[in-house]
Amino acid sequence: MVATSRLGKQISEIIATLNGLGAEFALIGGLALASHKVIRATQDVDLLADADLADVIETAVVSLGYRRLYRSIEVANYLRGDERLDFLFASRPIARRLLSEAPERSTAFGALRVISSEGLIGFKLQGLVNDPRRTQDLEDIRALLRANLATLNLDEIREYFRLFGRESLLEELLNATS
After folding, report:
1. Which phi and psi angles does 110 have, rounded to 5°?
2. Cβ distance 102 to 119 under 8 Å?
3. Strand pairing partners for 48?
4. How many CB atoms lie within 10 A of CB 153?
């Protein structure tokens, strides 16, 4: 059953638009948490999409009535009324791999590709490193570790923490979950 909430309608519209473009994309951010056994309230839609299609995606999103708040080569933020839509553009090898490997899952919004738990932890860590005030990202990482520890690829997660020089943070988080 597909969610018929306003958020559900927003997501359905975006999915149809991106599919119409032939764009490769996956759900990330707060809404992706539910596919990994973590529930929390969120009102924005966060997607990972191919950086090569950023201009085409923006044209399509603007045609749906969104206005650009910010755009760089790595991210874009849009707003339509109080509906927020954020894109992270996959251009680096790790992000491109995570996008290409994102499995399709059955979600409250229908079939949708969702980033892996490990990839979601990596993106949450990147958000926290980029802006330490983003304490929700740290809480999301904690929750993902707690809910999925038995099935996580810890080598992959360690590599993300190593990439950002935060190995000690990961050890602290893992010790707190065991």
Report:
1. 100, -170
2. yes
3. 26, 88
4. 11
Domain range summary for the chain, segments of one domain joined by +: 1-115, 116-178
- In 3-state terms, the chain is what percent helix, strand and coil (to 5)? 55, 20, 25
- Closest by Cα among 75, 28, 65 to 47: 28
Average pLDDT, the chain: 94
Q: Mind giving me the DSSP string for 81-144?
A: TTEEEEEEEE-SHHHHHHHHHPPEEEETTEEEEB--HHHHHHHHHHHHHH-TT-HHHHHHHHHH
**Mapping DSSP to helix (H, G, I), strand (E, B) and coil, where does residue 43 land?**
coil
In sequence order, what are the residues at sequence separation of 6 or more whose Cβ sits closer than 8 angstroms to the Cβ of residue 25?
18, 47, 48, 49, 50, 99, 113
- Contacting residues for 17 by C-beta, under 8 A, at least 6 apart: 60, 61, 64
Burial of 146 (0-12, 13-18, 19+ CB in 10 A): middle
Domain 1-115, CATH 3.30.460.40 — does that match? yes
pLDDT digits 0-9 by tens, 132-174: 999 999 999 999 999 999 999 999 999 999 999 999 999 999 9
CA distances from 135 to 1, 61, 130, 140, 173 (A): 33, 29, 11, 9, 14
